[in-house]
């Protein structure tokens, strides 16, 4: 009797397995379609994680986006900004990966999604999340103090070709966009970036170092325009692909001076892995509407942000950044991955 029961149970299992396999073949032959967006989405608040402390550039980006999406009535439910600083943005990325498939969680971050895993060897990167859109970019300025004997990029090139360590460059932390821009310039003129004398500063401490002549050449974001307009700094080049407008229209970029140097520090939104495709499309559409608004254009002007909105091509752009930064960081001896 017991043997008969075991035989029947084994047979049932085989039959179930056979039916499962048949189902597998059916699904393989006809891939499941993405589920449509629920009619009531979103039906509660959305949490936007910023993986840095309040008051910084990424925090300003996240809070501005959240405010405008709600004020412009593009998103009907509140977007709550939550700061989770730690390890160059990696804590926020880890939290996002743990929220797999959650349609009510977003991450606002910058180039750190690419650079931090490369320089710190952290577990997660942009590859482990769902890219939604790059919203805008900031570019880098290469500057000198007003009294500097360095008058042009050509002067910098001549000095570096003679001795890569002859000029000191001041900017933000090692591996940061400031550092990468200097490395790109060195590579463009045939100089090994590893031989550069780059001095990292925290916060805005590089600005007094530039003005005071403690470094020969300075790097920073477009906010340096205030020091340029006050006469304390002079611009050698901006890392934009083409000349910018407004307050920057008279300032040259690297490209127009014959140097293949373009570098952007973008801001973008991500979702957790396996975020439903219909939800991803919802946020792409919402951000697309926001960047067309007059209120957003005013924010771009106020903060020296440049409109580089990109949704469908965002993942491909991230892959290009990863390849470029990985190669440069390896040359600089900063690659930990």
Describe the structure.
The protein is of the alpha/beta class and 337 residues long. The chain has 2 domains: 160 residues, Bordetella uptake gene, domain 1 (D-Maltodextrin-Binding Protein, domain 2), CATH 3.40.190.150; 125 residues, D-Maltodextrin-Binding Protein, domain 2 (3-Layer(aba) Sandwich). It contains 11 helices and 10 strands. Strands 1, 2, 3, 4, 5, 6, 7, 8, 9 and 10 form a 10-stranded mixed beta sheet that branches. β5, α6 and β6 form a beta-alpha-beta unit. The longest helix has 28 residues. The N and C termini lie far apart (61 Å). The N terminus is likely disordered.
Question: In sequence order, what are the helices and strands, one letter per element?
Answer: HEHEHEHEHEHEHEHEEHHEH
CATH topology of the largest domain: D-Maltodextrin-Binding Protein, domain 2
Count of discrete alpha- or pi-helical segments spanning 4 or more residues = 11
The CATH level-2 architecture of the largest domain is identified as: 3-Layer(aba) Sandwich
Layout of helices and strands, plus pairs?
Layout lengths: L1 H28 L16 E5 L6 H15 L7 E5 L6 H9 L6 E6 L1 H9 L9 E16 L7 H10 L5 E4 L5 H12 L8 E4 L5 H6 L5 E5 L3 H5 L3 E6 L25 E8 L5 H14 L3 H10 L2 E5 L3 H18 L6
Parallel strand pairs: 1-2, 1-3, 5-6, 5-7
Antiparallel strand pairs: 3-9, 4-7, 4-8, 4-9, 4-10
């Amino acid at each position: 009797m017991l043997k008969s029961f075991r035989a029947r149970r084994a047979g049932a299992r085989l039959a179930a397995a056979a039916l499962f396999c048949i189902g597998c073949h059916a699904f393989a032959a006809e891939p499941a379609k993405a589920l449509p967006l629920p009619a009531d989405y979103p039906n509660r608040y959305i949490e936007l994680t910023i993986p840095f402390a309040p008051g910084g550039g990424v925090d300003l980006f996240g809070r501005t986006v959240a405010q405008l999406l709600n004020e412009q009535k593009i998103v009907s439910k509140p977007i709550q900004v939550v700061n989770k600083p730690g390890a160059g943005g990696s804590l926020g990325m880890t939290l996002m990966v743990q929220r797999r498939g959650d349609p009510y969680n977003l991450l606002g971050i910058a180039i750190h999604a690419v650079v931090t895993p490369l320089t710190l060897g952290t577990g997660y990167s942009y590859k482990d999340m769902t890219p939604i859109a790059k919203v805008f970019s900031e570019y880098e300025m290469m500057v000198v103090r007003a009294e500097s004997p360095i008058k042009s990029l050509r002067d910098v090139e001549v000095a570096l070709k003679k001795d890569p360590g002859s000029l000191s460059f001041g900017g933000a932390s090692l591996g940061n966009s400031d550092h990468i821009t200097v490395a790109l310039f060195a590579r463009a003129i045939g100089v090994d970036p590893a031989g550069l004398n780059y001095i990292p500063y925290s916060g805005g401490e590089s600005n007094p170092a530039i003005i005071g002549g403690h470094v020969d050449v300075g790097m920073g974001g477009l906010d340096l325009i205030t020091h340029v307009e006050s006469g304390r700094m002079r611009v050698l080049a901006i890392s934009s692909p083409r000349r910018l407008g407004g307050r920057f229209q008279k300032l040259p970029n690297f490209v127009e001076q014959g140097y293949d140097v373009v570098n952007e520090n973008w801001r973008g939104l991500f979702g957790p892995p396996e975020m439903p495709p219909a939800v991803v499309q919802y946020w792409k559409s919402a951000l697309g509407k926001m960047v067309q608004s007059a209120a957003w254009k005013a924010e771009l002007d106020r903060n020296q942000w440049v409109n580089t909105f990109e949704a469908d091509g965002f993942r491909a752009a991230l892959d290009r950044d990863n390849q470029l930064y990985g190669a440069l960081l390896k040359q600089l001896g900063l690659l930990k991955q």
